[in-house]
Amino acid sequence: MVPTNSMTAFEVLRWYVEAGVDETIAGHPVNRFRPVGENAAESMPQPLSAPKDLSDKGFSDQATAPAAFVPPVSIVKAPVLGPGEGSANGEVTTAVHLAQAAETVDGLRRALENFDGCGLKKTATNLVFLDGNPEAQVMLIGEGPGADEDRQGLPFVGPSGKLLDKMMASVGLDRTKVLISNTVFWRPPGNRTPTTQETAVCMPFVERLIELVDPKILIALGGPAAKLLLAQTAGVGRLRGKWFPYSTPGLSCPIDATALFHPAYLLRSPGQKRDTWKDWRAIKGKLDAL
Question: Which secondary structure element, helix H or strand E, spans residue 144, and what is its range?
Fold first, then answer.
């Protein structure tokens, strides 16, 4: 339970947002078994009363009987939705049309700024689109922004981003030579895992971004990104070190794609850094051979 007596209203609200509570349903509980209609109030059951004979109910005195309580009930009418509204399919269709209409990376950013089909946008501070060089030969895709990324509007700027910078520097790469993005473009509340619907409505923009950049090498950082981009169900431990063809209708030819452990995972499991170092050397070797 939240100790509201020791927190300001703003602190309580912030706690709820970070915990993932991002939507208010109604001001009062709703009795879903109550008939809905103009005369619904007349058909409401009356408050329960304590039984007259309490001796067989375990009470020795009527004063000790628990008082029945019926909370106030308000009828909340559902909004009338237009065609495609409130539907995941409708949101994905809109995302596809907006993404395909973008002819440049800047145009794709503007399309995302005007897109309201992803619920994450309601609770995020900033759009976290990309960082780096849009003409780079290497493109990295992670899972989603964290708190630091949400504040700055850039991907991988927190502790995991600093580790990523060090790993790239070890093979002569930096953010002027790569492009970095994520599978979702707004921070999930409380850094939770993005839902299937949230990733589905963002994927058309991710795919269009890859098509516009058209890199030579595509790197999925972490398991969720690897499953989405590589269409593989195995974990990163089995995918790392292998290469897969990534292709969409908008690409002239398939892109060599691979998976790496996410930098945040490496911070928790430093024993995997040795294997990741080998993977980066393989990536550098493939890049040099282009």
Answer: none
User: Tokens at residue 112, please?
Assistant: 């995302």
Q: Tell me which amino acid residue 80 is.
A: V
Looking at residue 89, its pLDDT comes to 81
What lies within 8 Å, CB to CB, of 95 at 6+ separation is 115, 117, 201, 202, 203, 204, 205
What pLDDT score does 243 carry? 97
Q: How far is CA 81 from CA 91, 92, 282, in A?
A: 13, 17, 52
Report how far residue 183's alpha carbon sits from residue 199's, in angstroms, rounded to the nearest whole number: 6
Give residue-wise pLDDT tens across range 11-55.
666 666 666 665 666 666 666 566 655 444 444 445 445 445 544
**Locate tokens 């790392």: which residue?**
240
DSSP string, 5-70: GGS-HHHHHHHHHHTT------SS---TTSPPSTTGGGGSPPPP---S--GGGT-SSGGGSPPP--
Phi, psi of 164 (to 5 degrees): -60, -40
Q: Enumerate residue ranges in the chain where pLDDT < 70.
A: 1-6, 10-88
Domains of the chain: 88-288 (3.40.470.10)
Q: What local confidence, expressed as pLDDT, does residue 132 receive?
A: 98
Distance, in Å, from the CA atom of 144 to the CA atom of 158, rounded to the nearest integer, reads 12
Contact 118, 204 (CB under 8 A): no
Which tokens is 236 given?
Answer: 């990163």
